[in-house]
Give the backbone structure.
Amino acid sequence: MSVLRAAVAGLLVLLAVNLQIGFFSHLTIDGVVPDVALLVVVGAALVRGPEYGAALGFAAGLALDLAPPADHTAGRWALALVITGYVAGLVRNDADRSAVVSVLTVAASAFTATSVFALSGLALGDPGVTTELVIDVLPIAVLYDVALTPLVLPAVAWVMHRVAPMSHRWAYP
Amino acid sequence: MKSHTRGGARSRKVPLLPALLVLVALGVITVDAAMDDSPAEPLRGVVGDVFGPVQSGLSSAARPLNAVGEFFTTVPGLRDENAALRAANAQLKAQLDTAGIDADRLAGLEIMRAVTRDAGLDVVAASVVGVGPAQSFSRTVTIDVGTVDGVTLDMTVLNADGLVGRVVRADRSTASVLLLIDADSVVGGRLGSSMELGFLAGNGDLSDQGRLSLTTIDSSVTAAVGDAVVTWGSRNGAPYLSGVPVGSVESVQSSPRDTSTVAIVAPFVDFSSLDQVFVVVGSAPERAATQAEGGLG
């Protein structure tokens, strides 16, 4: 059963990363694509909690770091999504979680992940990361992710509930 | 981080796994950034072989979505505006013709035609199937040809307009291309009129604002506005062939402080709508050699 769960999570990540790079490359806004991988991580973290969010964030981030056409230093998206997945998972404990909370979590997560990735680029001296570019990219990324939340999060939550062990199941509004 | 590990005995809420994963991620970054022969490279190959075909499939599924943009421009309210813009655009294009910039572009194309015909380049046609997100701050694309098609590291990628970039990794059925416009990309360029050499660096902007800055080696040389820039070329044509049109000089900025002039070059290639590209898999000397052996493929 745990092998099946891991396989499902792996498939989700594979699909999310390739949707982000292959599919949404046809629907970019100023070159910005929705962070589908991030949405999957946040969606899973909201259902399964911070530890799971961090683990899935690491896997999804590493996939983003290694999948073509990535050319940046490996581990940067992994770092950004571990932190994001963990923080998003903490929100799960809010008993009265509503759609609004989910959307706010996504917005905060998109901001955090993009910022951490950009900061790691600045720390490593990546010439592509400039403050102006970050300021251009950040709001578009956050809004695009929020726009896709109603499509991705319920689907991820459904999958997560289906494959979750009994002890981990709770009601999803 | 320290408080996490120190607090091990404190409460049940110890985020041990997340803390570990953060450390692992930092470790991966350090290793990949510091080592020339990074262990991440073979991993990239494995992931590329698995993810590449999925990316190609999803991309071809999404290709009709390019029409979504066209749909919105046919919304009645926008139609009139569109017509007005088209008229203005046509007028501006005519003005450009008289300004001679199109003539330069044509000259660039002529050079390219001459390059491919006379040098007898072997090219492989490819489609762009994945675009690195702007969130990653590097300008790379995935193309749907790989090592099975003869594509290897450092090959020149061009399209009908001019130089696109070079192959930075090749997997079995896909390859990653670093675009000319990437802030990390530096290409040797030659000014069409004076034959002077310089270095072209991208500014990382994919949109129409994407520009290259050309710093000439001889700082006394000033580029003329409208001057065509072609590649200078590398040894054995890798990573860049010589004589591929790159762009035309748009403006010249001189800085009295460091006594150098930087020419701003507008690339011929529209990087925001890349689709069909060509990878040069055989350069002239190799081709000549195979012809001499009678092994022309």
Chain A touches chain B through 64 residues (CB under 8 Å).
